[in-house]
Structures are given as C-alpha cells and as structure tokens.
C-alpha cells in the first residue's frame, strides 16, 4: 500500500512551476492521470509510455499541452520512443506540441 510517487510529489510541490513526471508507464498511469487532474502544473515525459493508446489517453484526459516527448537517447533507441507517438491517433497540432512545442514553451518561461 501507501501513496504512489506522483501523489507524494504533489505534497512537496507547492506553487505553479511546471513539474515534469518521468517514468510514466502502464503501472502508474492511472495515478499520474489523477494527480494531473488535480494539479495543473504537472506534465508527463513520454519515454516509458508503453500503454496501448497511451498518447491518446493522456491527450484525451489532460490535453496535449501537458505531454513532453522524451526518448532517453542515446541510452535507448530513439525510434522505440518515437514510433508510438508517430502511430498515435493525434492531430498534427497535438503531435507538434508533444514533440517540441511544449518543452519550448516551458524553457522560454511561458508555461
């Protein structure tokens, strides 16, 4: 039992600065979605997103504005992270936000 890591993190992060959760996969996606619905500054990095329709679920539940592409390259093959995003049923605008738009927005201080 006990609280998951994403839930514990919400107790430490006060304020509105963006928080990017990494390591999100099938085993913790439900918790992460619940946290994201209650805490608008939380976002997801996608390198471990191995859930069928994971990108569609995230975009449908919390919006493409809160998903950041990650690959863990060069430690992992880039295509293993990129192919699920390419195959996802998303709009070109959603895909562009995930691939680069969201992280550019954060790094420019617009988040």
Which structural class do you get from the secondary structure elements?
mainly alpha
Give the SSE order as H and E letters: HEHEHEHH
How widely separated are the two ends? Answer: 34 Å
Sheet with most strands: 3 strands, parallel
Low-confidence stretches: none
Quaternary structure type: single chain
Total DSSP helices: 5
According to DSSP, the number of beta strands is 3
Radius of gyration: 13 Å
Average predicted confidence as pLDDT: 89
If strands are numbered along the chain, what order do they take across the biggest sheet?
Answer: 1-2-3
* Inertia-based shape: globular
Query: Which strand-content bin applies to the residues?
Result: 5-15%
Approximate helicity band = 40-55%
Record the SSE blueprint.
Elements: H1 5-12, E1 19-21, H2 29-38, E2 42-45, H3 54-62, E3 67-68, H4 78-87, H5 92-107
Parallel strand pairs: 1-2, 2-3
Please tell me about this protein's structure.
It is a single chain. With 111 residues, the protein is mostly helical. It is 48% helix and 8% strand. The protein is built from five helices and three strands; from the N terminus they run αβαβαβαα. The protein has a three-stranded parallel sheet. Helix 2 links the parallel strand 1 and strand 2. The longest helix has 16 residues. The radius of gyration is 13 Å and the shape is globular.
